């Protein structure tokens, strides 16, 4: 077994060790914390590159390399619980992406968090977070996957609530934790079900008995459960619930926008590159359960994948609609993340692992770029997050503007040169060919239109026009001190690197040269420039180009042509002269009232249940307990009375009697010798009389 | 007719006098005297019973009495020593005052 496979565990272990080391250092050791975090992550990145290089070697027949290392964790009854890690293209590409993006974000964080008092704690959490995510990526057992998955949840909780002194941040952290937990519980059920059916949680086994491998799957395919549903479908749907929680799919998306309360590098890390990607990665990992055909098993059902595709499509449009009406720069990006995650799920559902994963990788880079760019803008605008109070930032922050523009165009899917175009186009192409329904395709196209539109809107708000920030708040005395300023190099260089990748990555997965897809699946798809002009591909390419152009034009028409209103004025779409638009916009602005809906239904129901339970506790159980208590108290009273009045008094009386006897007898003891002598004399006389009388009687 | 009853009468008279003295006197020395009288009454009984008993030839009776007298002498010495030490302690030989053993 190659060295890299055997020691793959080092990749997550190094950041974990760094987190442990930082956790025990004192607060002022900032330099040490940053060096540990960045150093170990750089090392992990190098190892990830080695692993990636290793997977580039194909087997003799051209199939993908997949090597696993399993070990026994513990024995439970007759079963042995095994954990392990796997190195295959899916893992390798995620390892490189996660460690590289994390590394850039860590470097950026040293600039962004430079003035924060809890610098060391922040880096400790960052390291832990990256370690957990890398653990998720290498896991070869659903159990290890779940452990790391929960660690990701925990560290995201810690990071979102990093500024826990802000009540909104604390609430957002709690919301993220609880919402993802709802999905995780269902995921756990799916895991148990899988274990009961497959008798193992290992994905791949050296003997070919892993739960994703042919022999196990073909055994499970024959089984059905209630309603004729296949067991694999049921398990797949349960696992998908976990993925939906983590990846913010409707209806569990509510935590993701609120999670923007964390520091911006955290937003970049959690909501672009790693955490939300975990859900998509989970689906990609367990894909053979959702579609047994991938593992060469015939007769399997892909019903679960249909659900995945529908949920993804709905999420993509739903979140894109909401993003149109938001005014917080990070919140727009958050909703766009939700929307893009929907696209990824759609891609997985309709096209397969490679389609979804390609968008995941490209999205990770340009969304990290956008979040870090947004962080740079926020940093430069003195912690201002409202895009209505920005404007004209291009003048002050040219590097950030350029990088941000690249990210925005990649996200919108501007043709040819930007990675988002190719990955999104591939999803649309797969959706177009999907035999089940064509609605997800139209939803996807609409989502792409909205994406281009809201990103253009944001660009115009933030970077175009004149600055609307300081002048309003501070009047004429604001001066130059409150003008935005460019961020330090430690923050802009990661932006530039990410921008380069946001462009370059797209060329690894174009229809003309589908290297990425071949690499992941081990197939040999046709390549060559001629592929671009196949009718179906040309159709989606030109359609998405048109859609993007329409979105950009619409954005320019509404926000770019006329100067944007001052900060207090309503949005163009919100003006009362378009009553319908105004109402729609208001709905979208309030995020379609999903939070309020949950507030009114689930949370109220939950509160009602809690009250009912509390009432039950208070009146039923409490009184029972009190009754038992009083019973015991009464019994002890009786006991005490018995003690006091029977035992004590009896004993006292006994003592008194003995004392009295003693007193009476002590009277005889006069102490005078003559008294004793007298008694002796009397006794002698009596004896003499008795003897005499007795003798004479006899 | 032997004079034995007369001796016995004398000895019981002597014993009674001794007992009365020991019981009624307050002075410790007089009590001791009473006790000696009772002892001598007993000695007289021994002599009388020996002299007019079954074997007047044997010397057991006289030996007994000689021993008894010797013991009485020693006892008198011990008793007087006790009385002296009581006197030293209580500054009195009045037996009514010496009642520390009362209950």
Task: Give your account of this protein's structure.
The complex is a heterodimer of chains A (698) and B (103). Chain A has 698 residues and is an all-alpha fold. Chain A has 27 helices and two strands. The longest helix of chain A has 75 residues, at 594-668. Chain A has a two-stranded antiparallel ribbon. Chain A is elongated, with a radius of gyration of 38 Å. Chain A has helices at 3-6, 10-23, 30-55, 89-112, 119-138, 142-160, 167-198, 214-221, 231-246, 255-258, 264-273, 275-285, 287-290, 303-324, 329-351, 353-380, 393-396, 398-412, 419-433, 439-463, 470-474, 489-504, 515-521, 535-560, 579-589, 594-668, 673-697, and strands spanning 67-76, 79-87. Chain A is 70% helix and 3% strand. By secondary structure, chain B is mainly α. Chain B has one domain (4-90): Helix Hairpins (Orthogonal Bundle), CATH 1.10.287. Chain B is 74% helix and 0% strand. Chain B has three helices and no strands. Chain B has helices at residues 4-24, 28-51, 60-90. In chain B, helix 1 packs antiparallel against helix 2 and helix 2 packs antiparallel against helix 3 (60-90). Chain B starts with a helix and ends in a 13-residue tail after the last helix. The chains are: A mainly alpha (698), B mainly alpha (103). The interface between A and B is medium-sized, with 13 and 12 residues.
The total count of helices of chain B amounts to 3
Q: What does the average pLDDT of chain A come to?
A: 87
Quick one: overall form of chain A? elongated
Fraction of helical residues of chain B: over 70%
The topology string of helices and strands of chain B comes to HHH
What is the CATH architecture annotation of chain B? Orthogonal Bundle
Estimate what percentage of residues of chain B fall within beta strands. Answer: under 5%
Helix content of chain A: over 70%
Q: Kindly state the mean pLDDT of chain B as a whole number?
A: 88
The spatial strand order of the largest sheet of chain A comes to 1-2
Poorly predicted segments of chain A: 471-480
Biggest interface and residues each: A-B, 13 and 12 residues
Number of domains of chain B: 1
Radius of gyration of chain B, whole Å: 17 Å
Number of DSSP-assigned strands of chain A? 2
Overall SS class of chain B? mainly alpha
User: What's the total helix number of chain A?
Assistant: 27
Beta-strand share of residues of chain A: under 5%
Query: Could you describe the largest sheet of chain A, including whether it forms a barrel?
Result: 2 strands, antiparallel
């Amino acid at each position: 077994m190659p060295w890299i496979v055997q020691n793959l565990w080092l990749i997550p272990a190094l950041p974990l060790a760094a987190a442990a080391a930082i956790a025990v250092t004192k607060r002022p050791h900032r330099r040490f914390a940053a060096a540990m975090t960045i150093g170990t992550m750089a090392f992990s990145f190098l190892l990830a590159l080695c692993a990636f290089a290793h997977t580039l070697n194909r087997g003799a027949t051209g199939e993908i390399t997949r090597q696993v290392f399993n070990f026994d964790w513990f024995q439970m009854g007759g079963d042995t619980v095994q954990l392990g890690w796997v190195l295959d293209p899916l893992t390798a590409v995620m390892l490189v992406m996660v460690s590289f993006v994390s590394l850039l974000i860590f470097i950026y964080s040293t600039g962004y968090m430079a003035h924060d008092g809890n610098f060391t704690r922040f880096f400790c959490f960052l390291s832990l977070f990256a370690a957990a995510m890398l653990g998720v990526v290498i896991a070869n057992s659903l159990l290890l996957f779940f452990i790391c998955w929960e660690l990701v949840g925990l560290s995201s909780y810690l990071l979102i609530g990093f500024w826990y002194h802000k009540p909104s941040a604390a609430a957002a952290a709690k919301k993220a934790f609880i919402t993802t937990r709802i999905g995780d519980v269902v995921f756990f059920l799916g895991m148990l079900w899988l274990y009961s059916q497959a008798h193992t949680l290992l994905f791949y086994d050296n003997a070919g008995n892993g739960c994703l491998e042919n022999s196990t799957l073909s055994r499970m395919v024959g089984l059905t459960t209630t309603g004729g549903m296949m067991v694999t479908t049921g398990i797949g749907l349960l696992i998908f619930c976990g993925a939906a929680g983590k990846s913010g799919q409707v209806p569990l998306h509510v935590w993701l926008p609120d999670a923007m309360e964390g520091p911006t590098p955290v937003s970049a890390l959690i909501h672009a590159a790693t955490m939300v990607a975990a859900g998509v990665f989970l689906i990609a990992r367990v894909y053979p359960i959702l579609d047994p055909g991938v593992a060469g098993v015939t007769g399997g059902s892909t019903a679960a994948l249909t659900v995945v595709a529908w949920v993804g499509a709905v999420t993509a449009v739903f979140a894109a609609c909401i993003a149109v009406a938001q005014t917080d720069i990070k919140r727009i990006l958050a909703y766009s993340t939700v929307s893009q995650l929907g696209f990824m799920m759609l891609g997985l559902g309709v096209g397969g692992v490679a389609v979804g994963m390609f968008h995941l990788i490209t999205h990770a880079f340009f969304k990290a770029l956008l979040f870090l760019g947004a962080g740079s803008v926020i940093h430069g605008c003195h912690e201002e997050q409202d895009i209505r109070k920005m404007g004209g930032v291009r003048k002050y922050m040219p590097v950030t503007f350029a990088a941000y523009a690249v990210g925005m165009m990649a996200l919108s899917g501007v043709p040819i040169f930007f990675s988002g175009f190719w990955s999104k186009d591939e999803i649309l192409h797969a959706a177009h060919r999907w035999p089940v329904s064509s609605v997800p395709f139209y939803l996807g196209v609409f989502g792409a239109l909205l994406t281009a539109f809201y990103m253009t809107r944001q660009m115009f708000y933030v970077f175009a026009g004149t600055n609307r920030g300081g002048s309003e708040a501070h009047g004429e005395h604001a001066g130059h001190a409150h003008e935005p300023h460019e961020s330090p190099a430690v923050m802009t260089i990661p932006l530039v690197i990410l921008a380069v990748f946001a462009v370059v990555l797209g060329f690894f997965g174009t229809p003309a040269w589908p290297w990425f897809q071949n690499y992941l699946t081990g197939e040999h798809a046709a390549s060559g420039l001629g592929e671009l002009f196949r009718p179906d591909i040309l159709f989606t390419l030109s359609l998405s180009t048109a859609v993007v152009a329409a979105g950009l034009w619409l954005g320019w028409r509404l926000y770019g042509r006329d100067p944007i209103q001052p900060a207090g004025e309503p949005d163009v779409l919100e003006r009362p002269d378009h009553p319908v638009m105004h109402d729609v916009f208001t709905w979208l602005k309030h995020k379609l009232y999903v939070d309020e809906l949950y507030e009114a239904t689930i949370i109220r129901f939950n509160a009602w249940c809690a009250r009912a339970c509390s009432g039950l506790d208070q009146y039923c159980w409490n009184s029972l307990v009190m009754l038992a208590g009083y019973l015991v108290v009464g019994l002890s009273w009786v006991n005490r009375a018995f003690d006091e009045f029977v035992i004590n008094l009896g004993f006292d009386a006994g003592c008194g009697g003995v004392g009295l006897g003693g007193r009476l007898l002590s009277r005889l003891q006069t102490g005078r010798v003559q008294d004793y002598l007298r008694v002796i004399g009397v006794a002698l006389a009596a004896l003499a009389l008795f003897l005499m009388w007795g003798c004479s009687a006899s | 007719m032997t004079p034995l009853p007369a001796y016995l009468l004398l000895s019981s008279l002597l014993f009674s006098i001794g007992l009365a003295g020991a019981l009624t006197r307050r002075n410790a020395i007089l009590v001791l005297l009473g006790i000696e009288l009772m002892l001598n009454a007993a000695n007289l009984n021994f002599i009388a019973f020996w002299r007019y008993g079954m074997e007047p030839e044997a010397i057991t009776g006289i030996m007994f009495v000689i021993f008894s007298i010797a013991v009485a002498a020693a006892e008198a010495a011990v008793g007087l020593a006790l009385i002296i030490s009581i006197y030293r302690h209580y500054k009195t030989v009045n037996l009514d005052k010496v009642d520390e053993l009362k209950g």
